Amino acid sequence: MEGRATLSRHLVEKRTAVADVVLERLVARGLTSVSSLLIRSLVAALGQATEAASPEPVVSWARMAHGAYTPSAIRDVVVATCDVVAEAGESLHLDFSALLVFLEIVKTNVAEAFPLAPGPRFDAPQRTANGVVDGVLAMLKARDEATCAHSHATGAWCRRLCEAMNLSQAQTDFIVKAAILHDIGKIGTPDAILFKPGPLTAAEWVTMQRHSVYGAEILAELPALAQYAPIVRAHHERWDGQGYPDMLKGDQIPFEARVVAVADAFHAMISDRPYRPAIAQRDAMAILREGRGTQWDAAVVDAMIKMLEAPRTNRGRQAARG
């Protein structure tokens, strides 16, 4: 389909306006329970789907919404959004017939993934939550594979850190899942900022900082994941109160967010980023030490450093024995 990139950019840039039109039509049809925020995320997913010529980003969105809405409501929202997107595409000088065919493929894929069941759903809560998480991560991966990989890695570091701190299994699992979801708000960050190879301007930095708020807003709309929203919102707060978005200080920051913040920062430092190469683990550890008690909770940093130094200490002991 010609003009895919043009339509994709249009949907990302105008997602709020497009979502407002979709919401008006849904309300007119009596479907009043769907939030504007989730419709905006669907419009963004349709933009990704259009550019990739694949319905998968929209199916992933549907999996994310599955914990909050019935299959019937999901299908109604997708159909209404596709109709509004078709109208938008008509004025963008692209292959309109190909667009219509593609949108029908999207609708069909969503309908096949979420058939209308005759009775109530009996999914176990944990299964539902896992399915919604999978949908959220699939949306993030379609937007930015590197951020999705970082999210998984942050979860893995959090698990090791929680185990080193002797936290309970339940608290560990909660923190790991929050860590995996911590950057979901970046699905709403413009490409020019998310992938910028150089330093951000002050205005761009303000936009980037919105990802923690946007991520929390998305999760708050999903009953299966709403409990993680406060952690996602707070994962860039600082112990000294100079973080964002709420400038929380010390114990005002949820403990789980303090753990995620250390694991997130450490993995970000040892990973390649668009604006800089990865730094050595020892240098990342030095930065954690420097930020101990100012940027990060000192107790969490101490546990992280101790965990990272343990293999080296063990090797030294073994060499001394030899």
Please sum up the structure shown.
This protein has 322 residues and is mainly α. It has helices at 4-13, 15-28, 36-52, 56-65, 71-90, 96-113, 125-143, 145-164, 169-181, 191-194, 202-220, 229-234, 255-269, 281-290, 298-321.
Protein described:
- The protein folds into two domains: 4-113; 128-317, Hypothetical protein af1432 (Orthogonal Bundle).
- It has 15 helices and no strands.
- The protein has helices at residues 4-13, 15-28, 36-52, 56-65, 71-90, 96-113, 125-143, 145-164, 169-181, 191-194, 202-220, 229-234, 255-269, 281-290, 298-321.
- Helix 8 runs antiparallel to helix 9.
- The longest helix is centred in the C-terminal third of the chain and has 24 residues, at 298-321.
Estimate the mean pLDDT confidence: 86
Count helical runs.
15
CATH A-level architecture of the largest domain: Orthogonal Bundle
Uncertain runs with pLDDT below 50, 5 residues or more? 118-123, 315-322
Beta strand count: 0
Q: What does the largest sheet look like?
A: none
- Radius of gyration over C-alpha positions, nearest whole angstrom: 22 Å
At the fourth level of CATH, the homologous superfamily of the largest domain is: Hypothetical protein af1432
CATH C-level of the largest domain: Mainly Alpha
